[in-house]
Write a structure and sequence with these properties.
The chain is mainly alpha-helical. 58% of the residues lie in helices and 5% in strands. The protein has a domain of 42 residues.
């Protein structure tokens, strides 16, 4: 009976040793940095770092865009105020008398009608303030009306 008990104790010890060996190998594979959970954690950590950098770049770009938008809005408000002043000044001008358009037949044929034209490609304004800037114009004869 003692011999059977010793054989069973040796068999149990061998089974426990084999179980520990298998468990040790699985644990080593589980914590392997390339294939196991350690590798997944390393990859996720790198991705979190990349996303953090991308988020910081997006925040800085949004800040620059917001500053540019604020500057553009302030400039537009200034131009709007000047246009309102110009419109108010236009109301102070006297109304022109009801002018009858001249009869083209009564105009002398020898004198061509002169008009002011902006040359092609000339800028509309030379300065940043389009209200105060004067565009370059040249004097030329008006094209004759097709009859």
């Amino acid at each position: 009976m003692a011999l059977i008990a010793d054989i069973l104790l040796i068999a149990g010890t061998l089974a426990a040793g084999f179980y520990c060996l298998v468990l040790s190998r699985r644990l080593r594979q589980f914590t392997d940095l390339e294939r196991g959970v350690g590798g997944a954690v390393a990859v996720l950590s790198a991705q979190v770092d990349d996303m953090t950098r991308a988020l910081e770049r997006a925040r800085s770009a949004a800040g620059v865009s917001a500053e540019s938008l604020e500057a553009t809005t302030a400039r537009a408000e200034g131009v709007t105020q000047r246009l309102e002043i110009l419109l108010a000044a236009m109301h102070d001008l006297p109304e022109p008398a009801a002018a009858v358009p001249p009869d083209p037949a009564s105009a002398p044929a020898s004198a061509p009608r002169m008009v002011w034209r902006r040359p092609r490609g000339a800028p509309l304004a030379d300065s940043a303030d389009p209200v105060l800037a004067a565009a370059p114009f040249r004097r030329s004869a008006a094209p004759e009306a097709a009859e």
